[in-house]
């Protein structure tokens, strides 16, 4: 079982005993969780007592660790260094990938992202506003920036909020909710990248010497519409009036952990993201040409799944 845990201000301390996380709540209650079950641990509470041993065990078990600031927004992430016995070989192939290969892969990623945005608008408004047709116009490397044009149309149609602008630094409740959801998604994709033996800092399109997770930023693009849809539903139902509450966090995480359709199968985000990263390894090694990306996203109804969400 994969578990995503958000340690909030209700959590007093996190320690370990016999490879179990021992969680002490502010009200004195204590819980234990096997470290091997945790996919991502989010430390959003401001006064949580923990130790290096906790971080070490979580990393050893393959979990990503997300740290939030005073406003409960993610500001840092840590992923395991090694996750595959052939990592050295795969990273060498990754580093030597040709520019045409990288541009071809970026086209596939952007096409999948725009198709996801089209599915999103179709699910909500029964009209994709021609985004499906825009996906077919993407060229190698997206040299004509169809992604940007599609994004402007997507955001203008998604939220009927006067003058809403998507801003990664925006502090309004919609942008903050999107940023929180994207941060969780990014951590899960980074986990899949490492477990497949790739280096998350070597991106296909994103290149920034200060960014250790460029490849995660690349590969999470087709999954972003899931977060967009979840935030829209929370906003449309009036659940964002009090900001990013525990309930909002739980809804965002549960939406991300819905069932995705990939290769004609229903799979969790953990399985789907791993399929994507494993297919990327195969492309780098010359064993295939195309990435394995989701065909259908869990945009409206979430199927029952095994992932457990804990917002402590």
Question: What do you see in this structure?
Answer:
Strand 6 (64-68) and strand 7 form a beta hairpin. The chain has 10 helices and 10 strands. Helix 6 packs across helix 9 (246-256) and helix 6 crosses helix 10 (269-284). It has a 5-stranded mixed sheet with strand order 7-6-5-1-10, with helices on both faces. Helices cover 42% and strands 16% of the residues. The chain folds into 2 domains: 3-78, Ribosomal Protein L15, Chain: K, domain 2; 87-311, CRISPR-associated endonuclease Cas1, C-terminal domain (Four Helix Bundle (Hemerythrin (Met), subunit A)). The radius of gyration is 19 Å and the shape is globular. The chain has helices spanning 52-60, 87-95, 99-125, 131-135, 146-158, 173-195, 214-219, 224-236, 246-256, 269-284; strands spanning 3-7, 11-17, 20-25, 30-34, 38-43, 64-68, 74-78, 260-262, 265-267, 308-311.
